[in-house]
């Protein structure tokens, strides 16, 4: 008899950035239900200190536990950089962080072992991506640029506007002397600035590969749910959203980013401590 676990899979991010991951997973796992939970009231996390990031992430995971998830994708790289071990220690359900898969993918595609990472300021400070990449290839030359400035722009649904283009162009100009052939998007929000990044790279005549963790995580999730035998064979897929901030604002931005009419989005609010 085939076993089917119909409980949803949680996806956690501080804000709308992880919707890029939801979009990928939704396509890759058509028989799975997903709960996307975002701490929109307290984002950005990337400019906060480790104790706030950890406390907020744990609180959001408690909510996911209450919602009876069978597994969680920790999309927020900032949270993963500081508290993935603590999350795994506290919660019984399996949690998958994006950092390891993205690090491996970037090592697999780089020819010259020069990798540039864009991440939040906090992730940059943690050195988590460097460590993950060095574990796979100790000879890799890795530089990380903190780009928390861009997070709020994406959160307003403006990742493809001129302001984000100018910021990205400025970041790239700082690395003219660094011969990178791969850029790793180490913050979920950056998935929604990709067209601008490609345009800025073309302007400076740079041909590089862009690693978007949204793509990397799918393979790992498949392996995990198959390995643990927690797949669902349900025919129709249900997606629900929980946000700690303004529900209407989230609906408006998510509708734009997911290209889905607002009335199709099932968004609820949840309380956080403040
Ligand atoms: N999107 C989150 C990440 O992947 C962090 C954005 C923020 O809240 O600063 O790191």
Task: Report on the architecture of this protein.
By secondary structure, this protein is of the alpha/beta class. Helix content is 46%, strand content 16%. The chain has a 6-stranded parallel sheet with strand order 4-3-1-2-9-10, sandwiched between helices. The longest helix is centred in the first third of the chain and has 17 residues, at 50-66. The chain is globular and about 50 Å long. D-glutamic acid is lined by residues 13-15, 17, 43-46, 76-78, 120, 123, 148, 151, 187-189. Residues 13-15, 17, 43-46, 76-78, 120, 123, 148, 151, 187-189 line the site of D-glutamic acid.
What secondary-structure arrangement, pairings included, does this model have?
Layout: E1 9-13, H1 19-28, E2 34-38, H2 50-66, E3 71-74, H3 77-90, E4 95-97, H4 98-109, E5 114-119, H5 121-126, H6 128-136, E6 141-146, H7 148-155, H8 162-174, E7 182-185, H9 194-203, E8 209-211, H10 213-227, E9 239-243, H11 247-258, E10 267-269
Helix pairs in contact: 1-10, 2-3, 4-6, 4-10, 7-8, 8-9
Bound molecules: D-glutamic acid (DGL).
Biggest sheet: strands side by side, in what order? 4-3-1-2-9-10
Mean pLDDT: 95
Rounded radius of gyration (Å): 18 Å
Query: Which ranges are low-confidence, i.e. pLDDT below 50, for 5 or more consecutive residues?
Result: none
Helical content, roughly?
40-55%
How would you describe the shape?
A: globular
- Content-based structural category: alpha/beta
The string of secondary-structure elements, in order, is EHEHEHEHEHHEHHEHEHEHE
Strand percentage lies at 15-25%
In whole angstroms, the N-to-C terminal distance is 47 Å
How would a crystallographer describe the biggest sheet? 6 strands, parallel
Total number of β-strand segments?
Answer: 10
Number of helices: 11
Q: What oligomeric state is this?
A: single chain
Bound molecules: D-glutamic acid
């Amino acid at each position: 008899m085939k076993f089917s676990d119909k409980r949803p899979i949680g996806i956690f991010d501080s804000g709308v950035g992880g919707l890029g991951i939801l979009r990928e997973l939704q396509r890759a796992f058509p028989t799975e239900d997903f709960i996307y939970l975002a701490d929109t009231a307290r984002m950005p996390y990337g400019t906060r200190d480790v104790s706030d990031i950890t406390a907020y992430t744990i609180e959001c995971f408690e909510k996911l536990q209450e919602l009876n998830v069978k597994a969680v994708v920790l999309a927020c790289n900032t949270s993963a950089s500081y508290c993935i071990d603590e999350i795994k220690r506290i919660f019984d359900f399996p949690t998958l962080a994006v950092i390891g898969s993205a690090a491996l993918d970037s090592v697999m595609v780089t020819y010259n072992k020069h990798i540039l990472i864009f991440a939040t300021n906090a992730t940059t400070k943690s050195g988590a991506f460097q460590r993950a990449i060095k574990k796979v290839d100790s000879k890799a030359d890795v530089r990380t640029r903190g780009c928390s400035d861009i997070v709020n722009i994406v959160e307003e649904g403006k990742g493809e506007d001129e302001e984000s283009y100018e910021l990205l162009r400025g970041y790239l100009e700082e690395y003219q002397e660094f011969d990178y052939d791969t850029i790793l998007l180490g913050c979920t929000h950056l998935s929604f600035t990709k067209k601008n990044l490609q345009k800025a790279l073309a302007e400076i005549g740079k041909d590089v590969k862009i690693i978007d963790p949204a793509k990397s995580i799918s393979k790992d999730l498949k392996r995990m749910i198959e390995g643990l035998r927690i797949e669902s064979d349900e025919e129709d897929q249900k997606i629900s959203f929980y946000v700690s901030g303004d529900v209407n604002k989230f609906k408006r931005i998510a509708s734009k980013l997911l290209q889905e009419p607002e009335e199709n989005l099932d968004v609820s609010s949840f309380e956080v401590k403040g």
